[in-house]
Amino acid sequence: MKMAESKEYILTVEGKAKLEEELDRLVSVTRKEVSEKIKEARSFGDLSENAEYDAAKDEQAEVEARISQIEHMLKYAKVVEIESNDQVTVGKMVTVNFHGDIAEQFGMAGEHTYTIVGSSEADPTQNKLSYESPIGAACLNRSVGDEVEADTPAGSVKFTVVKIEKAQ
């Protein structure tokens, strides 16, 4: 996988810490475990028909690729500093109140709280939205009380910014 040299990765302090933990685990634990699997599979004999060896080598390639990816992301990481809670920025929690036809149609009417994060940290199941996503981007630089429209694949979603706070 070729990675662009100049891509900047926007991360929260928490997101950077999670990547550093994952990298440490991959390098100090997982890499050694995979190496042991390869050693064990080699002991089974003929490598040309050795499924365990092939699987261990594939796992090794995946681990090394992820290590390389994380190292690249950390090298080009920009950790966001959170100053005030006046405007929505990366690293803030924002509570919005969805309203209108699209919100009603898709059962999302009402208040929802999201943490705005860099794209590598995004996880909608954890209410972490990328600042590049339609709703995340529409929230950026908004203040409490702002009426906002976000163009999403489902249509134009309307919401009001209700609360802005520092993410935990």
Could you characterize what this model shows?
With 168 residues, the protein is an alpha/beta fold. The chain contains four helices and seven strands. The protein has helices at residues 13-42, 51-75, 101-105, 134-139; strands at residues 9-11, 77-79, 92-99, 110-117, 128-130, 147-152, 155-166. The strands form two sheets. The chain has a five-stranded mixed sheet. Strand 6 and strand 7 form a beta hairpin. The chain is elongated. The model has no long low-confidence stretch (mean pLDDT 88).
- The first-to-last residue Cα distance is 34 Å
Fraction of helical residues:
25-40%
Task: Give me the strand/helix succession.
Answer: EHHEEHEEHEE
> Uncertain runs with pLDDT below 50, 5 residues or more?
none
Task: Please tell me how large the radius of gyration is.
Answer: 21 Å
The portion of residues forming beta strands comes to 25-35%
The strand count comes to 7
